[in-house]
Design brief:
Pfam families: FAD_binding_3 (PF01494), Rng_hyd_C (PF21274)
Domain FAD-binding: 4-346
Oligomer: single chain
GO molecular function: FAD binding; oxidoreductase activity, acting on paired donors, with incorporation or reduction of molecular oxygen, NAD(P)H as one donor, and incorporation of one atom of oxygen
Cofactor: FAD
Organism: Stenotrophomonas daejeonensis
CATH class of the domain at 408-515: Alpha Beta
Helix content: 25-40%
Strand content: 25-35%
Largest sheet: 8 strands, mixed
Structural class: alpha+beta
Length: 519
């Protein structure tokens, strides 16, 4: 029987992101996907600043075209594309705020999923990933030292068994892995099934010059949602599950366009609008990621696919340290503790907003958080985050947090060896200790060496320079004598705002707790 440390089931967007992040960290794994390649339907479209930061950390940021500066995804109610438009409808009703890109070195990416997946696939292969398309998981069982999976060839070949230390389920909302694990889901549940038609109409792209990409169409001939993939492809989503013949589909497209433009119908789709969050994100050695863990509809906030990509970024470094023997397996318990509340927050935010609240019998009552808070200011709590108390809100604008443990480390432009980089670039491989005080840097190196923790140190003012003398203190919430410890996924794990009388003991305790070190 062959062995792999990690078996990834599902080779779509989240599975490929998981494979990329694992292979970037040198974690050997096998990915199986029952289909021969990507879906012919473009599916997800908008990818957020946080997602682009994760891809940047994996070394492929430059391969993904980012949105123009200052661009935002805007939606209007419209009689048709060529007809009357309303004023843009806000995603988060209330006071406008700066775009999330004001807090990040990255901008979002308006790239269709079927264009992004080949980029991820190629990058994972370059890093040594073992991707097996056309193979499917037939079943699995847990044994004392891992998982034994039965893999079959979709083309009708024989089946074989594969032993894995951990099984990662990236197999979608219907997840057979989750079902076999007996993990239930809760949320608003099933709301309705919708149909769509994908068509190619480059002539319609001229209407995008006004800065609107989404259109809630309402006229006597068609009611639905029209949007673009930015490459001549458009999709019209109907508000019902009624089958339509070719002639009726063509008439609906013309009515949505409001003009006689040439188009080619490409394919039709059918999807379920629902909100469901798994009751647990792991069971034994099985972990759920993406839609297997949280089923959310497409949103202007990117709460669906982007949440799954962030799941992968959270879990990959933890698996690396556990499999290397640096950390105790209890480190992996933090995955569900951190990610499930994020999914619930995004579930509540989705169905409390006007886009989806209209489909509920009773509206959800919750505080609405802006784009920057939801994308770059969410708080993750677990036993490996030191100082993220229950009294803190689940999200806030990045500048409000100022380096709060459990939140993404703040972005600021800095200079390192003459090059202009972001502070985000400092914490992509190992735990990173940042301080202006040389005593903390020396103590960090000494204690990390004793405990066997891979650690990068950044002596602020020597190794890197901020644009303003007090910028580090303000951004990270520490004094010139303080210290901040950032995880390999860019989340602040711990900080000491000022000096400590016993630096070595203080750091040893923090290192052991945030990385679940042995001993």
């Amino acid at each position: 029987m062959h062995h792999t440390p990690v078996l990834v089931v599902g080779g779509s967007l989240v599975g490929l992101s998981t494979s990329l992040f694992l292979s970037t960290r040198g974690v050997a794994h096998v990915l199986v996907e029952k289909h021969p390649g990507s879906s012919p339907h473009p599916r997800a479209m908008g990818f957020t600043e946080r997602t682009l930061e994760l891809y940047r950390a994996a070394g492929i940021g430059e391969r993904i075209p980012q949105a123009p500066p200052g661009s935002r995804l805007r939606r209007v109610k419209a009689q048709s594309l060529a007809g009357h438009w309303s004023e843009p409808l806000p995603w988060t009703p209330g006071k406008p705020e700066p775009p999330a890109s004001a807090y990040s070195p990255c901008r979002g990416a308006a790239i269709a999923q079927d264009r992004l997946e080949p980029i991820l696939r190629q990058a994972a292969i370059e890093r040594g990933a073992d991707l097996r398309y056309g193979q499917r998981l037939l079943g699995w069982r847990e044994v004392e030292d891992g998982i034994v999976a039965t893999i079959g060839d979709r083309a009708g070949g024989g089946a074989h068994e594969l032993h894995a230390t951990y099984l990662l389920a990236c197999d979608g909302a219907a997840s057979p892995v989750r079902e076999q694990a007996g993990i239930a889901r809760h949320g608003v549940g099933y709301l309705r099934t919708l149909r769509s038609v994908l068509f190619h109409c480059p002539g319609a792209d001229a209407w995008l010059e006004r800065g609107v990409q989404q259109f809630q169409i309402d006229n006597p001939r068609v009611q639905g949602f029209l949007t673009t993939y930015g490459d001549g492809r458009w999709v019209l989503m109907f508000d019902d599950d009624r089958p339509r013949g070719e002639a009726e589909l063509d008439d609906a497209i013309r009515a949505a366009l409001g003009m006689d433009l040439p188009f080619d119908r490409m394919t039709t789709g059918r999807w379920e609008m629902a909100g469901r969050i798994a009751d647990a994100y792991s069971r034994g050695r099985v972990f759920l990621l993406g839609d297997a863990a949280h089923q959310l509809p497409p949103t202007r906030g990117g709460f669906g696919a982007n949440t799954g990509i962030d799941d992968a970024g959270n879990l990959a470094w933890k698996l690396q340290l556990v499999l290397q023997g640096v950390s105790h397996p209890s480190l992996l318990d933090s995955y569900g503790s951190e990610r499930q509340p994020i999914a619930w927050l995004r579930h509540q935010q989705t169905f409390a907003r006007p886009d989806y609240a209209r489909w509920l019998e009773s509206p959800l009552e919750t505080t609405l958080y802006g784009d920057a808070a939801m994308e770059l200011g969410q708080l993750q709590r677990s036993h490996i985050v030191l100082g993220a108390g229950a009294e803190l809100p689940p999200a806030a604008a990045p500048e409000v947090w100022a380096g709060q443990p459990g939140t993404r480390a703040p972005h600021a432009w800095i200079t390192r060896q003459g090059a202009r980089i972001s502070t985000i670039d400092l914490s992509t491989r190992h735990f990173t200790l940042l301080s202006q005080a040389p005593e903390w840097i020396a103590a960090g190196r000494e204690m990390a060496g004793r405990l066997g923790l891979p650690l990068d140190t950044v002596h602020v003012g020597v190794d890197v320079r901020f644009d303003h003398p007090d910028a580090f203190n303000a951004a990270y919430g520490v004094t010139a004598r303080g210290v901040s410890l950032v995880r390999p996924d860019g989340v602040v794990a711990w900080r000491r705002p000022d000096d400590a009388p016993e630096r070595n003991a203080c750091l040893a305790d923090a290192f052991r707790r945030v990385a679940c070190l042995h001993g």
